Amino acid sequence: MVNLHLKSSVLALFAAVASSLAAAETPLRVIFVNQSPDKAVELFWENHKLAKDHPDRRRLEATIPPRGGWHKSETFLGHEFSYDVEGQRHYVTPPPGNVHSEQFLMLAGSTDGYKVRCEVSVNSQQYMDYLDILVKPYWAPRAASRFLELVRNGYYDGVAFNRVVPKFLTQFGIGKDFLTRTRERELTLWDDFPKGVKFEPGTISFAGSGHDSRTTEIFIVMPGATQQQLDKFGENTWETPFAVIEGDVEKSALKKIYSGYGDMPPYGRGPDSNRIYDVDGYTRYLPKNFPKLDYIDRCYVVDEVGDFSEGEF
Length: 313
Known about the structure:
alpha+beta; single chain
């Protein structure tokens, strides 16, 4: 008589071995990104098949420069990498990739985030204030890296807060320069894997219109948003939080940005995003029809230009 328990154990062991072999042979492209303001990162490939004291146990794969430097590794699922940040070694085993067999990872060590300051007009351009944005490296690394890239390139300088709806959201991200916004609009961003981060007032995400559709437009959840609305944010695959407003959102400049025009068509009579993308979007359409809008003066990564105190505004 066949020992069913033994047979079951053998089959389970065979399945585990087969699964392990399949994983080891699964190709995976990994994009490693370094968003440090000033320090390069040395990325190592870890070979656990060799003894710990073997000279090839840890092999240098790439030195990745700061401020958006990146390295593409053609590897396999299950391979481990390591890197050092401020004397602490961090280990990472890239998880399975997307439908393109690609994974995107930020090498940020244990940092809490990268601070971006946006100097903005408020109360219909009567005063200047600022928004401090903490970009989270592990929530949505594609989105975080794209936002930092756009900030460093000055893309958001001069951009209008074109959709401001109290207790809902504030949206911006259509570039002031026609040629620039037209070019960047064509560069769509693949969706990030959701990490289970819940939307709250002050949470920031890219906007989009479908799967893998994100470009440059961003929204910030407004104070007073209902729990029902907060639960609806993130239902779409492209709505993935990547940053938060730092500090008390209720007391931030977010609530001072002009909101008198209401939501965009067809939900309201505010600015039409499609018209802003036209060649005369900033030269005629907005100033003629929506003269009270508030704007971003400039955005920058704080650690790359020096910090500021609140009193300087």
